[in-house]
Amino acid sequence: MKDFVYESPTKIIFGRETELQVGREVAERGAKKVLLHYGGGSIKKTGLYDRVAKSLEEAGVSFVELGGVVPNPRLSLVYKGIELCRNESVDLVLAVGGGSAIDSAKAIAVGAPYEGDVWDFFDKGVMPEAGLPVGCILTISATGSETSTSSVITKEEGWLKHALRCERNRPAFAILNPELTTTLPAYQTAAGGTDIMAHLMERYFTNEPNVDLTDRLIEGTLQTVIKYLPIALKDPKNYDARAELMWASTIAHNGILDTGRIGDWASHRIEHEIGAIYDVAHGAGLAVVFPAWMKAVYSHDVARFVRFFHRVWGLEPDFWNPEKTVLDGIAVMENYFSSIGMPVTLEELGVPDDRLEEMAEKSNWNGPVGQFVPITTEKALEILKLCR
């Protein structure tokens, strides 16, 4: 196990009707004017927008708003948010939505006080030295951005999808009401659950020995998602299932499961290039890429894969042919994804195979990706071909 320092300053307010507390949370941080940042019109149709606005007004907090966040959030909207924050003297950015809204809010928050181009943080390795505080009200269990250090933004010019990871990205507070996820379409719920699973698996496949505690925490969280995701799909109003998924989303990506180990993240980097070009749901893309990555790299540590499919998916190990256990396990996982309405091939995802070389090259824009097995451009292309 590696040495580590762990700190997670995000205050979590979890439970029914917790969005009504947002005004108090903002006011307690001394904010007088916030940027209310969200996606489409769903928060207005469900009444969430009105509840948030009322809570802010009752707390004496004014706000300006910026909607229009889309999946794979765009740099152009981040620029608009930065300009709005500067012109309106905003002192806190409040995201209402899922990972796209929160990631975009994080980028706006670090870009507002920065004199250069905010894309420097995502493309040139520059680290922000200042930033506005961010708060969020989560409406989909998926990315874990509500407590993570990550923000992923797509630049339309060249369709580049890059990430910024830094402690300054962690929100000051996160309001998690599972009830807010009950109106989601089934596809979004399933894609969100797959995203959670991918975050856990990225951490699980590590070369670090003696990490049994976090191994078992990851395995248990994965089993929770595997169990409760079909329940939420069958009974969308099931609060307990929604609550399990929402808390799993947060635990999967708040850093606690990184402690003492180094995860992989090659599958995410490869999927980012699919999402940047074809604008697919991130979790759906990961349902295609992750099994293909497994097929390409499992020989690096067959024992870890056998243990994964035994402990998480319940397969009995074939001690005389461990590779068969792994391949059978991948098939079981793919069948699970199919059963919840997720694609398992590029064709099912609606992605043609005429730009695989471009996506492979872009995945390696800053060198080989992945820590478990370094993935070169050539290896990334192999993985993308396995996705067909």
Instruction: Identify the strand order in the major beta sheet.
Output: 1-8-5-4-2-3
User: How many β-strands, per DSSP?
Assistant: 8
Order of helices and strands: EHEHHEHEHHEEEEHHHHHHHHHH
What portion of the residues fall into strands of 2 or more residues?
Answer: 5-15%
Structural class: alpha/beta
Rounded to the nearest angstrom, the radius of gyration is: 20 Å
Terminal Cα separation, in Å? Answer: 37 Å
Task: Categorize the overall geometry.
Answer: globular
Helix content: 40-55%
Description:
The chain is α/β, with parallel strands linked by helices and 388 residues long. Helices cover 49% and strands 11% of the residues. The protein contains 16 helices and eight strands. It has helices at 22-28, 42-45, 48-58, 75-88, 99-111, 119-123, 186-204, 212-234, 239-253, 266-278, 282-297, 302-311, 322-339, 346-349, 356-363, 377-386, and strands at residues 11-14, 33-38, 62-66, 92-97, 134-138, 150-155, 160-165, 173-176. The strands form two sheets. Strands 1-8-5-4-2-3 form a six-stranded parallel sheet, with helices on both faces. It has a two-stranded antiparallel ribbon with strand order 6-7. The mean pLDDT is 97. Keywords: Oxidoreductase. This is Iron-containing alcohol dehydrogenase. Residues 189-385 form the Fe-containing alcohol dehydrogenase-like C-terminal domain. InterPro entries: ADH_Fe/GldA (IPR001670), ADH_Fe_C (IPR056798), ADH_Fe_CS (IPR018211), BDH-like (IPR044731). Residues 9-178 form the Alcohol dehydrogenase iron-type/glycerol dehydrogenase GldA domain.
